[in-house]
């Protein structure tokens, strides 16, 4: 506007003054360790943080400390490492799981039923009893549980219990009644109903779970907001300062926004919308900007190509070893997958595709190869889980720049089940972290929380050993797929950030990146995997501010 | 945290420096006029604005100017007034209207049909032709138009045209086909289908419009975002710096958020969610905070008690004078209304209730009286339109602290129609601005854009004269309801802000409030109503930054 007179001198003076006005913070006396952007280990004893919560400088013992400080924190010589980035989790699912009936860790059907009974007594006013975390494989049951067994502990109210992997539900008779399900009910495409003499037994697999959608009361936004707060608590207590949310619904997004709007969003959430419709409804013409000082961004879309191995939904090239003629459930045809990927890619959305079986991975890699020719640029195609990959397909990750987003702890949880599902001769590309890395592809690690605990330390230990918490099998399962300590750590930090287009702001402690870090008692690089598994987070800081401290 | 050492001296020094660091701006040499918070006129010649876009000081010619300035603007003696606050509009509807077929201002059915034909030729690829703004009252037709008449200009594609008040649609035969509508189709509750010999004629009133919901392709988010940008352009060109959005859907909200996230939200939007479900889905446990530096807030919910007068949907105490036995359409029972109001009030959401007919206003006032006893505090119940109020009910606005949110230009558009609908003896409480003000209640003015133009100047002129753009009727229609110049201005600024819980930040130019203002050529307080009607906005500024300048 012509009448505006810029008073340049004043502005320059103001700019000079404002540099002086903002003082830094100093984290002093720590055993600091991080990877740099090249994956090299950097050690430091102090860190300067600017007033926007970004790392300004890493200092050695002999380096000069800044003169103007807003505050200083004495780390008492403890180990300071970058906050963990969980490359694959379900934030709201995690919060709800923490607030609902939890059957994880149950060792027998009886123990699970006892927990259901206790929960029902504790919440006499809840219309529906909702729970999750059961795994009949851990019960040595050799079969799915039944509605009749649930009826024996809760005959009067509907009970709806998701399997640990989310790919099957176990319900009681009142739940089936409420949903109007009987012997005549057909499973929708992509789903299956377990039956005995034609009667549903109480187990509904994959898309058959949707038969209950109308009957189950939806959580209200106020309950969603509580779940998000609960999820943040757990993430911070586990040293996870950023997480990729795999399958954000509009309701989830609104909870994220409400928290952000009120300054209550602490953890950084890299969001992948649940399906194309949510992606468009939230993002409109493209991914969102980074919001709330890098605490939220809609990066892309989460799609599902198949189900899970435990519920025999994973799509295999050959039939399941333990169910003849059955090769899993295709949730999308190859043409549908490519249409959806195109729809996302044309507007610059990233795609993260759930593929567990070898056929699902092969089809997804083929689709990515086709997309590559149409959509140029830095696309960072992601395959989520990539659990069973035909060894012949392994090189295709690196060839297409596809990131394998994998969950180390799944390997120990699934090992025995995978052997039964696939038989002994089809395990060569199972949970093949090292092979994928060595082929030149990037691997990002996560937990699939709430399927597994969000604690990253058991994940690091498993990645290095392929042994479970009891040290089984000794020397590791398919031990050639063990990765090095640095590879494991990198996949949980730097490359998990890269997988979410966030490596310029989080994933390591380097000047210009956010000062998100965790304080633990011992040195991560000098501890044994068994000790790392037992690491406890003492403090978690985000953007240079403390957000969690253990009791 | 115990180890944090606050370095108090440094912080204080930093705070002192930062005060110096932020320089102010000066708007100089203006004929500044505003109301203060008591409604008194204040004149000034210069305004100091702080670096957050807030008014810091109003200065007289003799007052000392600040020394440290970031920039200075010379107003060349022109008049500077606060930005207008439109208390009732439809932001997205306004944007879409500007991008779709516009039949407003047509003087005959032939002219309207010609415009439809031209539009169809201009957009040969649009599947549906969507338009609005028609008003058979302005055509001297004495009846509604018909599908057959539309077929004569567009036989090959569906055409769907909303009446100027949004309370009826006019469609062609292809549109009815596409929606599967024939002689057997029944109108839903709250709606009506015009028929001749049992066949639908092409006019669908109020909720009967929803029969087309499934058939009409929904705009995509990218089109919504374009509509929002268009709406902002029009608002700023008319000097409207804030608007209450009456009926925000989740899709609308996402557009507002995307614009805000990208720094493209200029106008301030006070949002009232469309119905309780959107209110809860967006707001969750309560109204949102002010977002984007006071540019967006979800304040409450918009509810509808009845329809509009033109389409005989307004709910009257006695039957319409021109349709015996028909008293309008109740869109909610009294019990439903109170349930919804309770649902909003319990979580602190404000309610803005569309009530046009005298019966609708009486029922809404009764509901508010009942709410008052349960929900204490500063509630600011709003009745939107309050067009026809039984004189006996007028004092109930002030008694309950209810704000009458009214649209002056509706009075001139509706005058002849209202006389026909109500007859000569039931007009005592029609568009009764002055009576409501004198009873002690607050009146907020708006335009109901896109029903009327968002230009506030004709509204000011109408409010002062009750004459239309041609000076009819001379001396004003029911002239005792004319308001003073200051009352009209206040209802378009200070009290429109008050109606949206925003009077602490906008609505007048006072220290601490946002520097939202408009520059016009002449003095608003010294110009005749006829001249004010012709005022053109030369510049619009929001938060101390120029956002519009006329060519």
Would you kindly provide a brief summary of this structure?
The structure is a homodimer of 551-residue chains. By secondary structure, the first copy, chain A, is α/β, with parallel strands linked by helices.
Average pLDDT, all residues of chain A:
94
Over the alpha carbons, how many angstroms does the gyration radius of chain A reach? 24 Å
Shape of chain A: globular
- End-to-end Cα distance of chain A, whole Å, is 59 Å
Number of strands of chain A: 25
The unreliable regions of chain A are 1-21
Q: Which CATH architecture of one domain in chain A would you pick?
A: Roll
**What is the CATH C-level name of one domain in chain A?**
Alpha Beta
**Amount of helix of chain A:** 25-40%
Most extensive interface:
A-B, 48 and 48 residues
Biggest beta sheet summary of chain A: 8 strands, parallel
Protein structure class of chain A: alpha/beta
Oligomer: homodimer
- Helices of chain A, by number, come to 17
Spatial order of strands in the largest sheet of chain A: 9-16-17-18-19-20-21-22
Strand content of chain A: 15-25%
Q: What is the CATH topology classification name of one domain in chain A? A: Diaminopimelate Epimerase, Chain A, domain 1
Keywords (chains A, B): Signal
Organism (chains A, B): Parasphingorhabdus marina DSM 22363
Pfam family, one (chains A, B): Amidohydro_3
Protein name (chains A, B): Amidohydrolase 3 domain-containing protein
């Amino acid at each position: 506007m012509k009448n505006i007179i810029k008073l340049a001198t004043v502005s320059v003076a103001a700019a000079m003054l404002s540099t002086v006005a903002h003082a830094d913070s100093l984290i002093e006396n720590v055993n600091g360790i991080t990877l740099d952007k090249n994956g090299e280990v950097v050690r430091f004893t102090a860190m300067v943080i600017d007033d926007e919560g970004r790392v300004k400088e890493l200092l050695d013992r002999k380096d000069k400390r800044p003169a103007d400080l807003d505050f200083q924190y004495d780390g008492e010589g403890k180990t300071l490492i970058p906050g963990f980035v969980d490359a694959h989790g379900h934030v709201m699912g995690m919060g709800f799981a923490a607030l609902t009936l939890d059957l994880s860790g149950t060792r027998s059907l009886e123990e699970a039923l006892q927990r259901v009974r206790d929960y029902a007594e504790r919440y006499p006013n809840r219309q529906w009893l909702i729970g999750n975390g059961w795994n009949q494989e851990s019960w040595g049951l050799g079969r799915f549980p039944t509605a009749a067994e649930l009826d024996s502990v809760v005959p009067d109210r509907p009970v709806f219990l998701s399997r640990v992997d989310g790919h099957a539900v176990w319900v009681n008779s009142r739940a089936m009644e409420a949903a109007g399900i009987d012997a005549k009910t057909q499973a929708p495409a992509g789903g299956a109903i377990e039956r005995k003499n034609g009667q549903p037994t109480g187990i509904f697999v994959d898309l058959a779970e949707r038969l209950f959608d109308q009957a189950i009361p939806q959580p209200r936004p106020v309950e969603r907001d509580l779940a998000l707060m609960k999820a943040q608590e757990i993430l911070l207590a586990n040293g996870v300062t950023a997480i990729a949310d795999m399958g954000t619904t509009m309701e989830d997004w609104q909870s994220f926004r409400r928290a952000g709007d009120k300054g209550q969003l602490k953890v950084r959430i890299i969001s992948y919308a649940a399906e194309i419709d949510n992606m468009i409804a939230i993002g409109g013409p493209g991914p969102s900007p980074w919001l709330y000082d890098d605490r939220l961004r809609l990066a892309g879309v989460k799609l599902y190509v198949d189900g899970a191995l435990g519920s025999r939904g994973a799509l295999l090239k050959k039939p399941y070893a333990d169910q003849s003629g059955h090769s899993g459930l295709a949730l999308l045809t190859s043409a549908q997958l490519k249409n959806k990927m195109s729809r996302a890619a044309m507007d610059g959305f990233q795609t993260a595709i759930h593929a567990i079986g070898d056929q699902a991975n092969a089809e997804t890699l083929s689709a990515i190869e086709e997309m590559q020719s149409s959509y140029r640029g830095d696309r960072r195609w992601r395959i989520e889980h990539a659990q069973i990959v035909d060894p012949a397909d392994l090189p295709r990750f690196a060839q297409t720049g596809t990131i394998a987003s994998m969950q180390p702890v799944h390997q120990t949880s699934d090992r025995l089940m995978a052997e039964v599902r696939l038989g002994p001769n089809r395990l060569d590309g199972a949970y093949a972290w090292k092979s994928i890395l060595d082929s030149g592809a990037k691997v990002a690690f996560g937990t699939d929380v709430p399927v597994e605990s969000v604690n990253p330390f058991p994940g690091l230990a498993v990645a290095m050993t392929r042994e479970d918490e009891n040290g089984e099998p000794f020397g590791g399962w398919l031990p050639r797929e063990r990765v090095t300590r640095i590879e494991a750590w990198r996949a949980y930090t730097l490359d998990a950030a890269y997988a979410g287009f966030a490596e310029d702001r989080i994933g390591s402690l380097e000047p210009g990146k956010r000062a998100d870090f965790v304080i633990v008692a011992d040195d991560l690089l000098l501890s044994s995997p068994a000790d790392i598994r037992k690491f406890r987070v003492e403090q978690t800081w985000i953007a240079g501010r403390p957000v969690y401290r253990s009791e």
